[in-house]
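Ticket #4471: structure output looks truncated?

Reporter: J.K.
Steps to reproduce: submitted the chain below (181 residues) through the standard prediction queue, then opened the result file.
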Amino acid sequence: KKYDGEFALLFFDGKKLISVNPGATVRVGLPSLDEAETLLKKAKIKSCIFAGEYYVREGATKGHPVQQVVGILRKPESKKQLEKLGLAVFDVIQLNEEPVASVGKVFELLEKWFGKGKTVHPVEHRKVDSNDKILEAFTEWVVGEGAEGVVVRHDSAGIFKIKTPHNIDVAVIGFSEGTAD
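Returned output as attached by the reporter:
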């Protein structure tokens, strides 16, 4: 399941966990990060790099959830507001400085580390073996539940994001030319 929120890479050195977003903002001390750090220490992980998506887990409104996430992360009004954010983890890039290449191994580790988490957890996922099963997941999660899309991962074929198409009619009402190339 594709969550609509803010992407983060997470780095754990055996003691501390930090997250870094694509804009190079470093985050520490969020409730979901504190929980993830505790779970990784409990699992006796020496070091790892993994990926996840911050999302609004309670009280999200229709529209653009990513904007709600970014608003809370940039200027939280209270600790209670930060507790509304979840962290859905979906990839393990390295474990003890070794790459993790197998999709099966990634989800095995994520379930082991974060399967009992409250604010941090593995993305909702399922193993499928046909295009029909992908379509079933898309219909359930995207059409039925309003998720952003689905991500299909395969060890040899790669990663594909599948989202609903959006068509819009627009009119260019103005433009300006730059002075540089």
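Triage note (M.O.): checked the attachment and the full token line is present. DSSP finds five helices and nine strands in the chain.
Status: closed, working as intended.
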